[in-house]
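User: For documentation purposes, I need each entry recorded in a consistent format: the amino acid sequence on its own, followed directly by the corresponding C-alpha cells. There are two entries in this batch. Please keep commentary to a minimum and don't merge the entries.

Assistant: Recorded as requested. Entry 1:
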Amino acid sequence: IPVKPEAGSSILNIKTGNYQFSGRMNSWNPYMEILAELGNSGIDPASVPHKWITYGNSVILKLSGTLNQRKKIGEAFLRVTGCSAVYEFTGGVKDRDRVPAVSLVSGKGGEIHHLENGVVYVFDPEKIMFSPGNVNERHRFLRLIKRGDTVLDMFAGIGYFSLQIAKHTDASIVHCVDINALSLDFLRKSAILNGLEQRIETHMGDCRTTIPQIRADIISMGNFSSIDYIAHGIMRLKDRGGIIAHFLVSTEEIERCSEHIMNKVRRLGVRCSVEDLHRVKSYAPNLWHMSAYIRIMKNLGQESSMDPQ
C-alpha cells in the first residue's frame, strides 16, 4: 500500500508496481523505456526484469547472464528511473544474523532511507534483510497494544515491528532484543531519525537469556522458529499478556497448527487461546508464513517453576 511522505519529507516511498522515481507520476511504467535504453546492447529482452522491489530510492532485481550484461541492465535502470542504486538478489539469507544475499550492481551503495507507514527505516540492503512484503502485517497487530503497555520484541532486527509500535501506539516502552549488533545500530539510527529514541530501548544478545527481568504485556516474535522459543517468551510476560508469533506451516498442517500451539503452551502449565490465526503469504510451495496472537493466562507463582526446555 503506497504511503505518501509526510509534509516536508524528501523521502521517496517506492514499492513494486508503484513507480515514483525522480518525481514521475505513479502511473508511469519505466519497463518499455528500459528496453529501449538497452537498444542494440545485445541484451535479451527476456532477461530484463519487468518486476522489482524498491527500498527508498534503490532497486532490487533478479538478474541472469554475465556480470557485464547484469551491469548494463543495472545502468539502464539508473538512467531511466533516476534511482540511486541497483542491487541484484541472489536468493535467501545467510546464517543466524540473516544477512541477505544481495549485491550492488550499479550506482552508489550504502545506507538508504525507506519510508513505510510513516516510519523511515535506515539500513544497508547488502548487510541487512528487509521484507517489503510484510507491510500489512507490520500494521495489522498495532490494534492489540494498549496505552501504557510494555512491549518486548524478541527478534527486533532493524525494528521492522518495533518502530511501528513506537510510532503508532501508546505503548510506554518498546524493548528490542537482537543477536545482530549491526541490526541494532540501524534500529537506533532509525529511532533517532523518527524521534522515537525515548520510547525504544535496545538490548544485544540471545533473546533466551537477555533481559530476563523484563515483564511485558505484549511480546512480538517475528521469527519463523518462534514456537520453539515460546517458553522463553511466556517467562517474560506478565500474568496476563499476549504473544504475536510468526511461523511456517505446511498446507496439510494449517488446520492443526492452532491445536499444536495450545498443546505446547499447556504442557508448560499455562492457559492460552490462539486468536487471529491467519496466513501472511506463501513462503514456498506447500509452505505458508503464518501469524497468530497467543493470549496467555498465567497463575501467580508459576513463572519460577517453568522450564523453557
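Entry 2:
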Amino acid sequence: MALWNRKKSKDGFAGLAIMSNGIYYLELLRSDTDLAVNRYEFVSYSHGAVKQDSLVDQEEAVRAIGELSDRIGGFGFDVALGIPSRDVMIKNVEFPDMDLEMAKDALHWNFDKNFPYDASEALYDADVIELPDGGKQDRVHLVVAAVRRFKIQGFLERLRGDGVPLSSMEPNNVAAFRAISRGMSIYDHGYIVLIIAAESLQMMIGYRESSLLFRSVPFPSDSVMSMEELSNRVVSEIQATGNYVRTLFRGINLSTVLLAGDVSVREHIVDRLKTEFDFSVDIVDPWLRWGITGAPDEAGEADVVVGLAARNLI
C-alpha cells in the first residue's frame, strides 16, 4: 500500500526512511540467486526533525537527505520514501461485497464520511484485508492510509527538486509490517507485530500477510520510562488492541507476537509477554526474513528501511 507510486527498476531497489534519530537509506540488488545490500547509510539530524513519531521540521529532514545524497554521489535507484507513522491516518473501512476497483470508487465518493477531509484534499491508497473464516464475508474490508496534500506536497516537491527520484511514499509502520510479516502467509492465525522505538510503540495486527490494523502509540514527551513502566505500557496496549480487534473481526485468533525494534529492551519484554499472555513470542530479523545478504553488523532501526527497499519485490 502506497500513497502514490510509479514504475520502478526490476533489478535495483532503494528505501529511504525518515526516522526519529535520523535518515536511513538502503539499496538492494537482485540477481537470479539472491538479494544483496548494495549500500546502507545513516545520517543523523543536527537537531530533532521527528518528535513522537511525527515530522516536525521538514527543513532539517531535507538537509539530512541532501547530506545523504552528497555522501553517496546522488541516487542511482528510484527511492521508496517512508514518513513518520503518525503523519498518516490509517483507518479500516468496509463496504458491501464488491471488487477492489469498485470499492476504491466507493471510498472516493464516501471519503469524507471516514476522514476529516475530502478525497480531493488527500493523498491516499487502500488495500483489501484478508480475513479468516468467520469474518464478515458479505462485506469488503479495506485498510486505508491517507494524508492531507497541503501537509506533505511541498516537502515532496522539494525532494524531487533536489534530485531525489521518488517512486512511492508510505507510512513507516506499513513498511515495517511488510519487512516483518514476510513468510506469515502459510499460517492460519492472527498475530501482533510489535516494534518498540525510542519515542513510540508500533503495533500492527496481521493475518497471513494482510495488515488488519495499525496503531502508533507515542510515549510521553521528554520523559524516560523505567523498564517496568515500559513493560506495563506494552502489556496494556496489547490487551486493549486485542480486545478491539476481536470485536472488529470475528474469527481472529491472536497467537503470536513478532517483536522488533529496540534491541536493549527485547529480553525483558519477551519474558514479560510470555508471563502475561499465552502467545509465542518471536524476535524477528528482517534481513533474514527476506534472505538479504551483506546486512550491516550495526543495523539500527532497520525494519522500516528494509520494508521500503523490498516493497517492489512482492
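Summary note for entry 2:
Residues 203 and 238 are 8 Å apart (CA to CA).
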